[in-house]
Structure to design on (576 residues):
């Protein structure tokens, strides 16, 4: 496993902070960049970063590998800013949509080496507060080649994935965005709409009558709105297509209920349960 | 705490089976009724039931308290069948909708005593296979008065709730059905539509790219279709009203994405996160 000596993580939030904590003990020297002073102090206190700064230009000066761990649209800005500031380097990002980022990385100067990354893990608690050393363990870590992906950049990206206990999956940015639109972005939309509708009832009895079903189905509605709105926005083509399919499924049930088609309601529920069994089988947790 | 001596549970599935397991050691003698021979054998082997039968008429003959733990529409049939078979007794049910059941119980002969019950807990694994002794622990257990609710029936119902470690909540059937329509039934619909839409993509890459967000948001889609379609059907008025609100929330996001309203996408996500914080506060698990 090949690893860079000096890694600078820009953004010590849930993803970047967890990466710093996961790299502790790996021998990699981590510099943390974050605008929030409290976050910088807290990160330094853990020993997971050897130095911190609020000024990214300072943070990246000596870096072998730069990790962009901010919301997607900030990553896009940083890709451009890095190109203009520094005479080359190696960069990877942790953003949840890949098409726009991979395209931007492809536009960096030829002295840059870059890989698109997306660790498929997360938490409903945003920022450094939510960061944990084991967030990446066992997670799929998607990697996307860019026009600036060199063998060295690919090896370092793979090393990073391995050292934090994740499993690498190389795929194109287009396929990544299409699949995560359904596996990750629409689930967020489903959960967030549920939370918004529950609030809309205007009766705190809803919370009192909630149990594990509501808890789990709504959990990801708490994900950082800055992060999520960037994701939905930068992957809106795939999200809109999958959302239309999702709304069509709701429409099938609504019609069955409204039109008195009891057998239709049953068939709809049976389809969902069959899908769930198939999913559990596919992810290696078959139903008992 | 007052408890009956002999309890007969009709249906040793997830809810009834878990109740039998939870009553073990309480001193209550439990008779189990189930049509499935494998379930009867397995239940008897745990010692949680002292006898089993596939014939409900045999099972209820000596019961002090009869617990109806089958899908809602079967409970409705049993309420009528019990009335015609036996010269009175005490009955409680564990069905997830209460309006239709409480009304049916009110129509039982005057020699009957009846309480509507709904333990607010569940699992995505149906049947005796999913039953666990701790399913009820800490769960809210809704209780609804019927025209046949006597002090004795109410005390036994409360005793049952207490002995399995749940917390009782008396409320009207109407309020129960309205609130659970949003706190439980629409979450199922949201999860089930997600699973159906994910299957509809027709690409197993969706499972490979799924992580904890998909896992949790879709979990309840695996709930027994027999149970869930009965619930949706018997609470269709409330479900349709809440579902319309849910679809309207999806429509707000869809419009913002389709019309290029980036600030609208952000505001939508912020509303969801604010709702999540409020929910966590309300259920005593405030965000850090």
């Amino acid at each position: 496993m090949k690893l860079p000596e000096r890694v600078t993580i820009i953004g010590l939030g849930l993803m970047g902070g967890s990466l710093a904590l996961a790299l502790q003990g790996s021998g990699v020297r981590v510099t943390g960049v974050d605008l929030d002073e409290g976050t910088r102090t807290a990160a330094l206190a853990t020993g997971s970063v050897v130095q911190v700064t609020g000024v990214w230009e300072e943070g990246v000066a000596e870096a072998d590998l730069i990790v962009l761990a901010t919301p997607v649209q900030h990553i896009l800005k940083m890709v451009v800013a890095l190109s203009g500031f520094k005479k080359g380097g190696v960069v990877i990002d942790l953003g949840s949509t890949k098409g726009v980022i991979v395209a931007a990385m492809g536009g960096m100067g030829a002295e840059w080496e870059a890989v698109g990354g997306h660790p498929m893990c997360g938490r409903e608690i945003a920022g450094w507060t939510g960061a944990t050393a084991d967030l990446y363990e066992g997670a799929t870590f998607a990697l996307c080649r860019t026009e600036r992906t060199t063998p060295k950049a690919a090896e370092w990206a793979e090393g990073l994935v391995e050292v934090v206990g994740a499993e690498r999956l190389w795929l194109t940015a287009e396929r990544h965005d299409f699949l995560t639109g359904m596996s990750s972005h629409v689930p967020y939309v489903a959960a967030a709409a549920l939370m918004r509708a529950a609030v809309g009832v205007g009766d705190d009895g809803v919370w009192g009558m909630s149990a594990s079903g509501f808890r789990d189905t709504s959990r990801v509605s708490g994900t950082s709105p800055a992060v999520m709105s960037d994701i939905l926005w930068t992957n809106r083509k795939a999200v809109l297509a999958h959302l239309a399919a999702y709304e069509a499924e709701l429409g099938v049930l609504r019609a069955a209920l409204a039109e008195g088609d009891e057998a239709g309601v049953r068939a709809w529920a049976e389809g969902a349960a069959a899908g769930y069994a198939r999913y559990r089988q596919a992810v290696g947790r078959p139903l008992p």
About this structure: Residues 173-200 of chain B form the longest helix (28 residues).
